[in-house]
Write a structure and sequence with these properties.
alpha+beta; about 40% strand; four-stranded antiparallel beta sheet; 3 helices
Length: about 210
């Protein structure tokens, strides 16, 4: 009579764990020049092949000292340790893009304002008092001063806006840098676990710190 029991799956069951969230430190031994850490992980495996990835192991982990022990109906094999690629911190954001656009518009507006001031100065310089009625000189000067004052105030306002935009850009870049702290937990262990039956098992990582 043929057996109805399902054979173990050849498709591995992938399990991902975090050393800080899923692991519990069970012991710390201190020797001359080094320390040895014992960390325990409990999780559920499926019948057959399981691939367990443990992220967030310390950079100072001594790979040559790593030992892995299993507790439960499972066999440990194929242990490897690698470095997790570090992600580059972000260099831009929607806020920076918006501020850069605002800075460009404000810079162009300031350039136009300065050109208007130059044009006004040149216009006044070309006036010949000999060809202008004396009664009109006072009005021309009055209009010049009013227009020049308006343009000067506009230029000062735009320059202040540019300074504020630069400060906002510096703050946003600092915020982006602060949101990406340098991690010291960039090692990863990948462990093959073959289970005879589905259930909870424990694996123990014992490693030295450089």
């Amino acid at each position: 009579m043929a057996s109805t029991e399902q054979p173990p799956s050849f498709q591995p069951n992938f399990i991902e764990l975090s050393s800080t969230e899923n692991g519990k430190i069970a012991g710390v031994s201190v020797y001359t020049g080094r320390a040895e850490i014992t960390r325990v992980f409990a999780f559920t495996v499926k019948t057959g092949q399981n691939q367990v990835t443990i992220n967030g192991l310390p950079d100072v982990l001594d790979q040559d000292s790593l030992r892995v022990e299993g507790r439960g109906s499972a066999t440990i094999h194929d242990v490897s340790v690698s470095n997790v690629p570090r992600l580059s911190p972000p260099t831009t954001s929607s806020t920076i893009s918006s501020l850069n656009s605002k800075r460009e518009r404000t810079t162009k507006a300031l350039e136009r304002c300065k050109k208007s001031i130059d044009s006004l100065e040149r216009y006044l310089a070309t006036m010949d008092v000999k060809t202008i009625d004396v009664t009109q000189v006072r009005q021309v000067v009055k209009e010049y001063e009013a227009t020049a004052e308006e343009l000067d105030n506009r230029a000062l306002d735009l320059e202040a806006q540019l300074l504020e935009i630069e400060e906002q850009l510096a703050e946003e870049r600092a915020r982006l840098g602060a949101s990406s702290p340098t991690s010291t937990l960039n090692k990863r262990a990948v462990i093959g676990v073959f289970a005879d039956v589905e259930g909870e098992v424990e694996i123990v990582l014992i490693y030295g710190k450089l």
